[in-house]
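thread from #wetlab-drylab

HS: before we spend reagent money on co-crystallization trials with zinc ion, can we at least see a predicted complex? here's what I'd submit
DV: go for it
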Amino acid sequence: MPAPDLGLGIDVGASKIQLGVIDAEGAVLRRAHLSPWHYSKMEDNLANLMDRLDGLMGGYERHRFHDIGVGLPGTVDSVTGVVSYTPNLRWFDLPLGPMLTERTGLGVHLVQDTAAAAWGEYLYGAGQGLKNIACITIGSGVACGMVIGGELYGGARHTAGEIGHLRVADESLVCGCGGRGCLEAGGSGLGLVKIFERNAKALGVEPRRFQDWPEEHPDEQLDQQLYRQPEGQPKDRFNQGPNAHAIFEAAKRGDDLCLKSIAEMVENLALGLSVVATTLAPDALILSGGLSRERELLIEPLMERTRAISYHTVVENVRLAPAALGADAPLVGAAALYLSSEYGGAR
Ligand SMILES: [Zn+2]
Protein backbone atom coordinates (compact mmCIF):
# COMPACT_ATOMS: atom_id res chain seq x y z
CA MET A 1 0.00 0.00 0.00
CA PRO A 2 1.43 3.44 -0.88
CA ALA A 3 2.33 5.83 1.94
CA PRO A 4 -0.18 8.53 2.94
CA ASP A 5 0.25 11.75 0.97
CA LEU A 6 -2.69 13.92 2.08
CA GLY A 7 -3.39 15.91 5.23
CA LEU A 8 -6.81 16.60 6.71
CA GLY A 9 -7.19 19.82 8.66
CA ILE A 10 -10.00 21.35 10.68
CA ASP A 11 -9.77 24.97 11.85
CA VAL A 12 -12.40 25.81 14.42
CA GLY A 13 -12.79 29.59 14.35
CA ALA A 14 -15.15 31.83 16.26
CA SER A 15 -17.33 32.40 13.19
CA LYS A 16 -16.57 29.48 10.91
CA ILE A 17 -15.33 25.91 11.05
CA GLN A 18 -13.12 25.24 8.05
CA LEU A 19 -12.10 21.84 6.79
CA GLY A 20 -9.55 21.07 4.11
CA VAL A 21 -7.62 18.39 2.29
CA ILE A 22 -4.02 19.55 2.00
CA ASP A 23 -1.21 18.08 -0.08
CA ALA A 24 2.42 17.58 0.95
CA GLU A 25 3.36 21.08 -0.29
CA GLY A 26 0.74 22.77 1.87
CA ALA A 27 -1.71 23.49 -0.98
CA VAL A 28 -5.42 23.25 -0.13
CA LEU A 29 -6.96 20.78 -2.61
CA ARG A 30 -10.49 20.76 -1.27
CA ARG A 31 -12.42 22.83 1.25
CA ALA A 32 -15.63 22.74 3.20
CA HIS A 33 -17.00 24.85 6.01
CA LEU A 34 -19.82 25.11 8.48
CA SER A 35 -20.93 27.50 11.20
CA PRO A 36 -19.78 26.88 14.75
CA TRP A 37 -22.29 25.85 17.32
CA HIS A 38 -23.17 26.08 20.95
CA TYR A 39 -22.69 23.14 23.25
CA SER A 40 -26.44 22.68 23.71
CA LYS A 41 -26.84 21.61 20.07
CA MET A 42 -23.75 19.49 20.07
CA GLU A 43 -25.22 16.28 18.68
CA ASP A 44 -26.82 17.78 15.56
CA ASN A 45 -23.76 19.80 14.82
CA LEU A 46 -21.32 16.97 15.26
CA ALA A 47 -23.43 15.07 12.74
CA ASN A 48 -23.02 18.02 10.33
CA LEU A 49 -19.29 18.10 10.91
CA MET A 50 -19.03 14.37 10.20
CA ASP A 51 -21.04 14.78 6.98
CA ARG A 52 -18.72 17.53 5.79
CA LEU A 53 -15.73 15.36 6.63
CA ASP A 54 -17.21 12.41 4.68
CA GLY A 55 -17.85 14.72 1.73
CA LEU A 56 -14.26 15.98 1.80
CA MET A 57 -12.76 12.52 1.97
CA GLY A 58 -15.09 11.11 -0.68
CA GLY A 59 -13.32 10.04 -3.84
CA TYR A 60 -9.96 9.62 -2.13
CA GLU A 61 -8.79 6.24 -0.99
CA ARG A 62 -8.73 6.17 2.80
CA HIS A 63 -5.12 5.01 3.03
CA ARG A 64 -3.95 8.26 1.38
CA PHE A 65 -4.74 10.28 4.53
CA HIS A 66 -2.43 11.04 7.40
CA ASP A 67 -3.98 11.67 10.83
CA ILE A 68 -6.50 14.51 11.16
CA GLY A 69 -5.31 17.74 12.78
CA VAL A 70 -7.66 20.16 14.52
CA GLY A 71 -6.87 23.73 15.59
CA LEU A 72 -9.15 25.17 18.28
CA PRO A 73 -9.54 28.56 19.98
CA GLY A 74 -9.17 27.33 23.55
CA THR A 75 -7.67 24.79 25.88
CA VAL A 76 -7.26 21.27 24.57
CA ASP A 77 -5.77 18.10 25.99
CA SER A 78 -3.54 17.02 23.14
CA VAL A 79 -2.98 13.61 24.74
CA THR A 80 -6.60 12.51 25.23
CA GLY A 81 -8.08 14.49 22.34
CA VAL A 82 -10.56 16.25 24.63
CA VAL A 83 -11.46 19.92 24.13
CA SER A 84 -11.34 21.16 27.73
CA TYR A 85 -12.79 24.62 27.17
CA THR A 86 -13.26 27.11 24.36
CA PRO A 87 -14.37 30.46 25.87
CA ASN A 88 -16.06 31.86 22.75
CA LEU A 89 -17.85 28.71 21.65
CA ARG A 90 -18.49 27.38 25.14
CA TRP A 91 -17.49 23.84 24.41
CA PHE A 92 -16.73 21.94 27.61
CA ASP A 93 -14.96 18.59 27.95
CA LEU A 94 -15.82 17.54 24.43
CA PRO A 95 -14.07 14.30 23.37
CA LEU A 96 -13.73 15.53 19.78
CA GLY A 97 -10.62 13.46 19.03
CA PRO A 98 -12.14 10.08 19.91
CA MET A 99 -15.38 11.03 18.09
CA LEU A 100 -13.52 11.84 14.87
CA THR A 101 -11.45 8.68 15.16
CA GLU A 102 -14.58 6.57 15.57
CA ARG A 103 -16.08 8.04 12.41
CA THR A 104 -13.01 8.01 10.17
CA GLY A 105 -10.70 5.36 11.58
CA LEU A 106 -7.92 7.96 11.52
CA GLY A 107 -5.76 9.27 14.37
CA VAL A 108 -6.63 12.82 15.51
CA HIS A 109 -4.36 15.54 16.91
CA LEU A 110 -5.82 18.56 18.70
CA VAL A 111 -3.92 21.77 19.22
CA GLN A 112 -4.57 25.44 19.96
CA ASP A 113 -5.25 27.35 16.76
CA THR A 114 -2.29 29.69 17.36
CA ALA A 115 0.06 26.71 17.50
CA ALA A 116 -1.51 25.36 14.30
CA ALA A 117 -0.92 28.72 12.60
CA ALA A 118 2.72 28.76 13.75
CA TRP A 119 3.23 25.23 12.43
CA GLY A 120 1.69 26.18 9.07
CA GLU A 121 3.90 29.26 8.72
CA TYR A 122 6.96 27.27 9.78
CA LEU A 123 6.40 24.51 7.22
CA TYR A 124 4.91 26.39 4.27
CA GLY A 125 4.89 30.13 4.97
CA ALA A 126 7.07 32.97 6.26
CA GLY A 127 9.06 30.62 8.51
CA GLN A 128 10.16 28.17 5.82
CA GLY A 129 13.78 27.13 6.17
CA LEU A 130 14.11 28.60 9.69
CA LYS A 131 14.55 26.69 12.95
CA ASN A 132 12.95 28.96 15.53
CA ILE A 133 9.87 31.09 14.97
CA ALA A 134 7.26 32.85 17.05
CA CYS A 135 3.97 33.44 15.26
CA ILE A 136 1.79 36.09 16.87
CA THR A 137 -1.90 36.02 15.95
CA ILE A 138 -3.69 39.34 16.19
CA GLY A 139 -7.43 39.02 15.73
CA SER A 140 -10.29 39.00 18.18
CA GLY A 141 -7.60 37.92 20.69
CA VAL A 142 -3.79 37.86 20.85
CA ALA A 143 -1.65 34.75 21.26
CA CYS A 144 1.68 33.30 20.23
CA GLY A 145 2.53 29.94 18.69
CA MET A 146 6.16 28.83 18.84
CA VAL A 147 8.38 26.47 16.90
CA ILE A 148 11.68 25.95 18.68
CA GLY A 149 14.45 23.85 17.19
CA GLY A 150 12.09 22.66 14.46
CA GLU A 151 9.40 21.42 16.85
CA LEU A 152 6.19 22.97 18.09
CA TYR A 153 6.61 24.17 21.64
CA GLY A 154 3.65 23.54 23.93
CA GLY A 155 5.21 23.98 27.36
CA ALA A 156 3.60 22.50 30.45
CA ARG A 157 0.26 20.95 29.42
CA HIS A 158 0.37 22.70 26.04
CA THR A 159 -0.48 26.07 27.50
CA ALA A 160 2.56 28.02 26.28
CA GLY A 161 2.13 31.23 24.32
CA GLU A 162 -0.85 32.83 26.03
CA ILE A 163 0.79 36.23 25.72
CA GLY A 164 -2.63 37.88 25.43
CA HIS A 165 -2.64 37.96 29.23
CA LEU A 166 0.72 39.65 29.75
CA ARG A 167 -0.11 42.83 31.63
CA VAL A 168 1.44 45.46 29.44
CA ALA A 169 -1.50 47.75 28.71
CA ASP A 170 -3.44 50.47 30.50
CA GLU A 171 -5.24 49.24 33.64
CA SER A 172 -8.47 50.88 32.50
CA LEU A 173 -8.78 48.13 29.88
CA VAL A 174 -10.53 45.09 31.34
CA CYS A 175 -9.78 41.69 29.82
CA GLY A 176 -12.14 38.76 29.24
CA CYS A 177 -10.01 36.78 31.73
CA GLY A 178 -10.97 39.20 34.49
CA GLY A 179 -7.55 40.88 34.61
CA ARG A 180 -6.78 44.50 33.85
CA GLY A 181 -4.32 45.81 31.30
CA CYS A 182 -3.82 42.48 29.51
CA LEU A 183 -2.19 42.67 26.07
CA GLU A 184 -5.38 41.20 24.61
CA ALA A 185 -7.46 43.95 26.23
CA GLY A 186 -5.29 46.59 24.54
CA GLY A 187 -3.94 44.88 21.43
CA SER A 188 -6.67 42.73 19.86
CA GLY A 189 -9.60 43.74 17.66
CA LEU A 190 -11.85 43.73 20.69
CA GLY A 191 -9.16 45.63 22.60
CA LEU A 192 -9.09 48.31 19.92
CA VAL A 193 -12.83 48.79 20.37
CA LYS A 194 -12.27 49.19 24.13
CA ILE A 195 -9.53 51.76 23.55
CA PHE A 196 -11.66 53.63 21.04
CA GLU A 197 -14.70 53.70 23.34
CA ARG A 198 -12.59 54.94 26.23
CA ASN A 199 -11.01 57.68 24.10
CA ALA A 200 -14.37 58.67 22.62
CA LYS A 201 -15.88 58.94 26.08
CA ALA A 202 -12.99 61.10 27.31
CA LEU A 203 -13.70 63.51 24.47
CA GLY A 204 -17.45 63.37 24.96
CA VAL A 205 -17.93 61.84 21.49
CA GLU A 206 -20.76 59.38 20.96
CA PRO A 207 -19.27 56.11 19.61
CA ARG A 208 -22.61 55.21 18.09
CA ARG A 209 -21.95 57.49 15.14
CA PHE A 210 -20.91 54.20 13.58
CA GLN A 211 -24.47 52.93 13.64
CA ASP A 212 -25.18 54.31 10.18
CA TRP A 213 -22.41 52.28 8.62
CA PRO A 214 -23.41 49.26 6.55
CA GLU A 215 -23.39 46.08 8.59
CA GLU A 216 -22.26 43.96 5.69
CA HIS A 217 -18.54 44.46 5.23
CA PRO A 218 -16.32 42.60 2.79
CA ASP A 219 -14.44 41.15 5.72
CA GLU A 220 -17.21 38.91 6.85
CA GLN A 221 -15.17 36.65 9.07
CA LEU A 222 -13.58 39.36 11.17
CA ASP A 223 -16.86 41.17 11.30
CA GLN A 224 -18.72 38.24 12.68
CA GLN A 225 -16.07 37.79 15.31
CA LEU A 226 -16.25 41.39 16.35
CA TYR A 227 -19.99 41.62 16.15
CA ARG A 228 -20.39 38.30 17.87
CA GLN A 229 -23.56 38.59 19.81
CA PRO A 230 -23.30 37.80 23.52
CA GLU A 231 -26.02 35.46 24.65
CA GLY A 232 -29.24 37.11 25.69
CA GLN A 233 -28.49 40.48 24.10
CA PRO A 234 -30.82 41.77 21.43
CA LYS A 235 -29.03 41.74 18.08
CA ASP A 236 -29.89 45.28 17.04
CA ARG A 237 -28.39 46.80 20.16
CA PHE A 238 -25.13 44.93 19.76
CA ASN A 239 -24.82 45.81 16.10
CA GLN A 240 -24.90 49.51 16.84
CA GLY A 241 -21.49 49.53 18.44
CA PRO A 242 -18.20 50.11 16.62
CA ASN A 243 -15.99 47.22 15.57
CA ALA A 244 -12.30 46.99 14.71
CA HIS A 245 -12.98 46.89 10.98
CA ALA A 246 -15.02 50.10 11.14
CA ILE A 247 -12.29 51.78 13.22
CA PHE A 248 -9.60 50.87 10.68
CA GLU A 249 -11.78 52.06 7.79
CA ALA A 250 -12.45 55.38 9.52
CA ALA A 251 -8.71 55.75 10.27
CA LYS A 252 -7.95 55.30 6.56
CA ARG A 253 -10.23 58.27 5.91
CA GLY A 254 -8.23 60.31 8.41
CA ASP A 255 -10.40 60.08 11.53
CA ASP A 256 -8.16 61.38 14.34
CA LEU A 257 -9.78 59.45 17.15
CA CYS A 258 -9.45 56.18 15.26
CA LEU A 259 -5.84 56.89 14.31
CA LYS A 260 -5.00 57.71 17.91
CA SER A 261 -6.69 54.53 19.16
CA ILE A 262 -4.82 52.38 16.65
CA ALA A 263 -1.52 54.03 17.64
CA GLU A 264 -2.23 53.06 21.24
CA MET A 265 -2.99 49.49 20.16
CA VAL A 266 0.33 49.39 18.27
CA GLU A 267 2.20 50.58 21.37
CA ASN A 268 0.62 47.85 23.52
CA LEU A 269 1.40 45.16 20.95
CA ALA A 270 4.98 46.38 20.55
CA LEU A 271 5.51 45.95 24.31
CA GLY A 272 4.22 42.38 24.11
CA LEU A 273 6.22 41.56 21.00
CA SER A 274 9.42 42.93 22.49
CA VAL A 275 9.00 40.51 25.41
CA VAL A 276 8.66 37.60 22.98
CA ALA A 277 11.51 38.74 20.72
CA THR A 278 13.90 39.31 23.62
CA THR A 279 13.00 36.14 25.53
CA LEU A 280 13.06 33.72 22.61
CA ALA A 281 15.41 35.49 20.17
CA PRO A 282 13.71 33.57 17.35
CA ASP A 283 14.95 33.59 13.75
CA ALA A 284 11.65 35.22 12.85
CA LEU A 285 8.71 36.82 14.56
CA ILE A 286 5.74 36.40 12.24
CA LEU A 287 2.58 38.48 12.46
CA SER A 288 -0.58 36.55 11.65
CA GLY A 289 -4.30 36.59 12.47
CA GLY A 290 -7.35 38.39 11.13
CA LEU A 291 -5.95 41.90 11.63
CA SER A 292 -2.57 41.20 10.03
CA ARG A 293 -4.01 42.35 6.70
CA GLU A 294 -3.95 45.92 8.05
CA ARG A 295 -0.40 46.40 6.80
CA GLU A 296 -0.09 50.16 6.63
CA LEU A 297 -1.84 51.14 9.84
CA LEU A 298 -1.00 48.18 12.04
CA ILE A 299 1.69 45.77 10.84
CA GLU A 300 4.27 48.22 9.46
CA PRO A 301 4.21 50.58 12.47
CA LEU A 302 4.13 47.59 14.81
CA MET A 303 7.31 46.12 13.32
CA GLU A 304 8.97 49.52 13.54
CA ARG A 305 7.94 50.15 17.16
CA THR A 306 8.94 46.65 18.25
CA ARG A 307 12.43 47.21 16.85
CA ALA A 308 12.63 50.66 18.41
CA ILE A 309 11.78 49.61 21.97
CA SER A 310 13.50 46.19 22.09
CA TYR A 311 17.04 45.36 23.20
CA HIS A 312 18.79 46.04 19.92
CA THR A 313 21.56 43.45 20.28
CA VAL A 314 18.94 40.71 20.30
CA VAL A 315 16.26 42.10 18.05
CA GLU A 316 18.59 43.14 15.21
CA ASN A 317 18.94 39.44 14.43
CA VAL A 318 15.19 38.73 14.52
CA ARG A 319 13.36 38.92 11.22
CA LEU A 320 10.00 40.62 11.71
CA ALA A 321 7.60 39.61 8.94
CA PRO A 322 3.92 39.42 8.10
CA ALA A 323 2.46 35.92 7.75
CA ALA A 324 2.52 34.38 4.28
CA LEU A 325 -0.44 31.98 4.49
CA GLY A 326 -3.06 34.51 5.54
CA ALA A 327 -6.28 33.05 6.94
CA ASP A 328 -5.29 29.51 5.89
CA ALA A 329 -2.38 29.25 8.34
CA PRO A 330 -4.28 27.36 11.10
CA LEU A 331 -6.01 25.05 8.61
CA VAL A 332 -2.83 24.13 6.76
CA GLY A 333 -0.82 23.84 9.98
CA ALA A 334 -3.47 21.62 11.60
CA ALA A 335 -3.46 19.30 8.57
CA ALA A 336 0.31 18.90 8.98
CA LEU A 337 0.27 18.05 12.70
CA TYR A 338 1.17 14.49 11.78
CA LEU A 339 4.67 15.94 11.24
CA SER A 340 4.89 17.15 14.85
CA SER A 341 6.19 14.73 17.43
CA GLU A 342 5.20 17.18 20.18
CA TYR A 343 1.55 16.80 19.19
CA GLY A 344 1.43 13.07 18.71
CA GLY A 345 2.57 12.76 15.12
CA ALA A 346 5.37 10.34 14.26
CA ARG A 347 8.23 12.10 12.63
ZN1 LIG B 1 -6.39 38.64 30.28
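DV: Residues 63 and 212 are 54 Å apart (CA to CA).
HS: ok that's useful, forwarding to the group
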